[in-house]
């Protein structure tokens, strides 16, 4: 039996036994000439990154198939969204694990593009999902922005723990990332830029 697992702004996710199908369905509010290529690009992007992640053994759903247009089939991760789990568990330990895993992504030239605790699943450790905005880059700037987006997500969703959580994440990141020190310096620049824009 197929059941609706989640309905986001961009996609619907269906579960059937151990399998999940992510469907980037057509959006009526977008012009077709814009919507079609956008959905296709995100589907291809996510599929490509999931294949790469499987090849390096990174904890993410294993992709089984895609039509390279709107559908991706992948393993169902039977766990809890980190968003709901992190504050109930040892959040410092989990935050460290997040930092270490982001470093692995970045060391392989992968920028996630949407790092939030809604895009992580806690099972036997943390798995990352939702690679529709991901891309390949070796630039410190792109890596710093990736970390900055996580900081913003933590700040808004986990306001009680975010500061300690993010500092644990950065500590672990620095220890494990290539050019970690430079990337964190860059992060400070990115954050100053953000603050100046808000003024
Ligand atoms: N492989 C999976 N196993 C278990 N649950 C999943 C899996 N993939 C997605 N989910 C669930 O579905 C939700 C939405 O998935 P996802 O984040 O990939 O889609 P989205 O936010 O609509 O992304 P996009 O912006 O790329 O369209 C997740 O928060 C999670 O609860
Ligand atoms: Mg998501």
Describe this structure in words.
- The protein has helices at 32-56, 82-85, 91-107, 140-157, 162-176, 180-198; strands at 3-7, 12-16, 19-23, 63-66, 71-75, 80-81, 110-111, 120-123, 125-128, 135-136.
- By secondary structure, it is of the alpha+beta class.
- The chain has 2 domains: 3-75, 2-Layer Sandwich (Phosphorylase Kinase, domain 1), CATH 3.30.200.20; 80-198, Transferase(Phosphotransferase), domain 1 (Orthogonal Bundle), CATH 1.10.510.
- The strands form 3 sheets. Strands 1-2-3-5-4 form a 5-stranded antiparallel beta sheet, with helices on one face. It has a 3-stranded antiparallel beta sheet with strand order 6-8-9.
- Helix 3 (91-107) runs parallel beside helix 5, helix 4 (140-157) crosses helix 6 and helix 5 (162-176) runs antiparallel to helix 6 (180-198).
- The chain is globular and about 45 Å long.
- The relative contact order is 0.13.
- Bound molecules: adenosine-5'-triphosphate and magnesium ion (MG).
- Magnesium ion binds at residues 8, 118-119, 130.
In terms of topology, how is this protein built?
Elements: E1 3-7, E2 12-16, E3 19-23, H1 32-56, E4 63-66, E5 71-75, E6 80-81, H2 82-85, H3 91-107, E7 110-111, E8 120-123, E9 125-128, E10 135-136, H4 140-157, H5 162-176, H6 180-198
Helix pairs in contact: 3-5, 4-5, 4-6, 5-6
Bound molecules: adenosine-5'-triphosphate (ATP) and magnesium ion.
Magnesium ion binds next to loops.
